[in-house]
Amino acid sequence: MRTETGQVFTLADYKPTDFILERIDLTFELHPLETKVTARSLFHRRPGAATDAPLILDGDELVMTSLLLDGIELARDRYEETGRHLVIDGLPEEIAFEITVETMLAPANNTQLMGLYRSNGVYCTQCEAEGFRRITYAYDRPDALGVYTVHIIADKATCPVMLSNGNCIGKAGYGEGKHFASWFDPHPKPSYLFALVAGDLGVVEDTFTTMSGREVALKIYVEHGKEPRAAYAMDALKRSMHWDEEVFGREYDLDIFMIVAVSDFNMGAMENKGLNIFNDKYVLADPETATDADFANIEAIIAHEYFHNWTGNRITCRDWFQLCLKEGLTVYRDHEFSADQRSRAVKRITEVRHLKSEQFPEDAGPLAHPVRPTRYKEINNFYTSTVYEKGSEVTRMIATILGRETFKQGMDLYFERHDGKAATIEDFVKCFEDVSERDLGQFSRWYHQAGTPLVSVSTEYDADQQEFSVSLEQIVPPTPGQARKEPMHIPLKFGLILPNGNEAELDGVTGGDVTEDVLHLTERSQTFTFTNIPARPVLSLNRGFSAPINVDYTLTTEDLTQIAVHDRDLFARWQALNSLALPELTGAVKALRKGDAPTFNPAFIAALLAAAADEDLEPAFRAQALALPSESDLAREIGANNDPDANLVARLSLLNAIGLTGRKIFANLFETMSSSAPFKPDAASAGKRALRNTALTYLSFADNDPTLARETFDKADNMTDLSHALTVLAHHYPDSAETAEALEAFAKRFEGNPLVLDKWFAIQATTPGPDALDRVKSLMESPRFNAGNPNRVRALIGTFAFSNLSGFARADGAGFAFLADQVLDIDTRNPQLASRLLTSMRSWRMLEPQRAEYAKRALAKIDSSASLSVDVRDIAERMLQ
Ligand code: 0A1
Ligand code: ZN
């Protein structure tokens, strides 16, 4: 494990390498404990580099057994191994030279899952961000692009499948029960995109004919017996390939595209050139074992990794500070893909829910950082929702500001100008400036200033002048290292809704720039005045969530209801319902904390039930409308001095009130939304299931009876309905016999299916209340728990810490103390997993003082531990700052 050295990497220190890597030849002789890696790399000195500059290669926990220069062993005084680097002196000034490094690895002992490791007997690699240096000494940085040839030698019996990037150029026997395969990737690439897989795997095959008529072989490798569960992923892959051609004009560039599903993986998936490696959770699906959410995630992640082939691989990042160049852009591309495959409005609602529940808290807490950070201690800690999701929103805003056509021209220019290169955010933005002839300097602050802007809004209608004024004021809150912010360019989609429900025609405007339906807020405060507005309109602002901001705009219930019923933007209708719900919840929390019973505004409940029963609205939208703001949304709204128990009870009380008032509507929806047709994972069918399951939740509240949930559980013919019914039982009737039986039946039925058992753990980990911690602890003792598998750890401990606010942030601090112990233990095996779990405490300062004190103690305990990984040390330090 790498431990803290105090080293900070800064963008300002970026320097190109002194040598240029041309090609690299890798030979792997695979063995669980003694894998020999021979890396032959051809370098030449960069023109202009100092003639005496040494070659400095990166390494991490390597055992080097031989080092050659042009085939001859290097004398001991010509090189130095510093622990992190191999430094070689006296290299030629002008001619190219070859360095051969031989290292010995023990993949079976690699529990960090970075570099070469074993997952369920399969050899696989993970090199992003800095895993390649755990395989051999190398320029392990994204601006060092080389052409790779890879030879793999392994046992025929245990490794019939041997894969690497590019195309297979040879395969043959190698004596003594072994065989070898050679792979060549013609596209120069950085080391983080290198991949190798070897093992005994089944395969699903298909083909795709590209827009220029080339046939590409498609292969998805999975554990034997799981092949049928890869069919949906294959379908999603073909749709992604087609979409990228249609929408972005991007064609695939090798003869073969492979995906391998492994069961031990730190993240979701990885875009290695031509050989994507996936957490099997994002490949395997069938109706019996996967929920609609699983199907949607698989579609999105398959697309995401495939889209990286252009945004990430063909054009990569100059350095890791530019991570959002590939990630923000690729998330934007996968969001657009899913929006085209499904309902755009519903997709947008789910994106915004996710952004608000993950990225907004990050931006409001001690881990806040700009989309393009300028310093880091551990890059693994920057694969964040700020870089990914806020990065995507920034790309979306460029499209909003420039318009669809100009945005497309900018993307085309980006692909043309930077293909085959390592680029920066400045390069990216410049392409849009060049095609639009606009200065995006102020806009670029979105990349550099952290924190969620708060826009305060007030409006005034002058009936005599028929003028409507909108006054806006923006504040970007201070964040760690950035006390003062400059005003941002905030593009706000908007509309003015007249009392008759129609949209006002926009005639003239003063006070700022308005282009079609976008109002451009660029000053700290600005008043836009619209002329010729015949009656007092309601302002619908930030339609489609065109900017990732918080809005402070107090509308009356009548005005919000006007938006909720009439807005032509479905997203805005959902947003209005959400804005109506929040004060109901905060009011209930206030009442509860004073010892009073909460009461709710019947007008809100009526508006919600009207949406629920409105057959003109698609079922998926209605289900979203009925899904109240989460406990974490509520905590964010309250801001400081949060009591998670009161938040939980407030939310449950509102669910109960809605359930009772809308009992008939829900009973009707539960019936009408059911289907006897065979399961289909498409968005429309999923929407019906979502609405029916939402109805089940409300009914079970209204009736305070587990019977209907239990019946649904018994009859369910798909995982969406089955797991929802089990969730209702486990969360609302945790002590009932029905629940105990259902949990046991579920576990028995899916004993051999780890991904489904993860759901079983997650459902129990989110049962709210003070017993949750004991439940989690006893589940850890269960033989079904497996501390070595990241998915299982995340399902139980991660779900508990991130998604069970009342259980985790228990008043006596026991939840925090538990997490601290888990983080310290996991850190000894898998620092990335440990540091991610620790980020569950990122909002600790928002808690009431007693809980916050316990949280601080748990963080301090971690921070005072002598042997921490760089990953965990970095997070613990930042959280305590
Ligand atoms: N580039 C991947 C994410 C990723 C990052 C680091 C990893 O290391 C364990 C793995 C995957 C993506 O955006 O999908
Ligand atoms: Zn990505």
What does this structure look like?
- The strands form 8 sheets. The chain has an 8-stranded mixed β-sheet, with no helix packed on it. A 5-stranded mixed β-sheet has the order 17-18-19-21-20, with helices on one face.
- With 881 residues, it is an alpha+beta fold.
- The longest helix is centred in the middle third of the chain and has 25 residues, at 570-594.
- A hairpin with a 5-residue loop joins strand 17 and strand 18 (215-222).
- The radius of gyration is 28 Å and the shape is globular.
- It is 41% helix and 21% strand.
- The protein has 27 helices and 33 strands.
- Residues 304, 308, 327, 330 line the site of zinc ion.
Q: Provide the low-confidence segments as ranges.
A: none
Q: Main beta sheet, described? A: 8 strands, mixed
Percent strand equals: 15-25%
Distance between the termini: 24 Å
What ligand molecules are bound, each kind once?
Answer: O-methyl-L-tyrosine, zinc ion
- What number is the mean pLDDT? 97
Q: How many strand segments?
A: 33
Organism: Rhizobium aquaticum
GO molecular function, one term: alanyl aminopeptidase activity
Domain Peptidase M1 alanyl aminopeptidase Ig-like fold: 451-553
Cofactor: Zn(2+)
List keywords for this structure.
881 residues, alpha+beta, 8-stranded mixed sheet, 5-stranded mixed sheet, 41% helix, binds O-methyl-L-tyrosine, binds zinc ion
